[in-house]
Amino acid sequence: MHSTEAHDKLNALIEEVPDFPKAGVVFKDFTPLLADPGALALAVELMANPYRGKGIDLVVGAESRGFIFGIAIAQALSAGFVPVRKPGKLPRMVHGVDYDLEYGTDRLELHTDALMRGHRVLLVDDLLATGGTMKASCELVQKTGAEIAGITVLIELNFLHGREKLSGLGEVHSVLKYD
Known about the structure:
The structure is a single chain. This protein is α/β, with parallel strands linked by helices. It has one domain (51-178): Rossmann fold. It is 31% helix and 34% strand. It has a 5-stranded parallel beta sheet with strand order 4-3-7-8-9, sandwiched between helices. The protein has a two-stranded antiparallel ribbon with strand order 1-2. Strands 5-6 form a two-stranded antiparallel ribbon. The mean pLDDT is 95.
């Protein structure tokens, strides 16, 4: 399948939902893509392919939508998966990072023994918008001494400039971009 064809197939399965979760926002709902086995496999391949042969040891995905693609990409790359969770969800010692949201702050956590110096890590999420969640996830990885080998997302909302927050943290790959 040609690259443009592949992107068109995936784009056709992204539903735009106006005024969700608040007025003025057009939500990109990718759940129809998840329900289509061929499209799901294609999305995973397009997210994983730039990192094949790059020595990825572990894939890190943030709760909860980062889990959806993260585990599948980890399998595609013969790597392990490490979850980044909201506070209070991990049972052992954790590293934590507080970060800003549009309307307040939040926190993400990672087990202190989940990653080690020398691990090559790929960070995964469904969406790159303002970049806050991904930047916090990168900061957690850095606390462990592991190396960020890259960042991959299904959807990037270019107009929110999230990529700029990730400058210097690793190569950012997005499958679908919206201006």
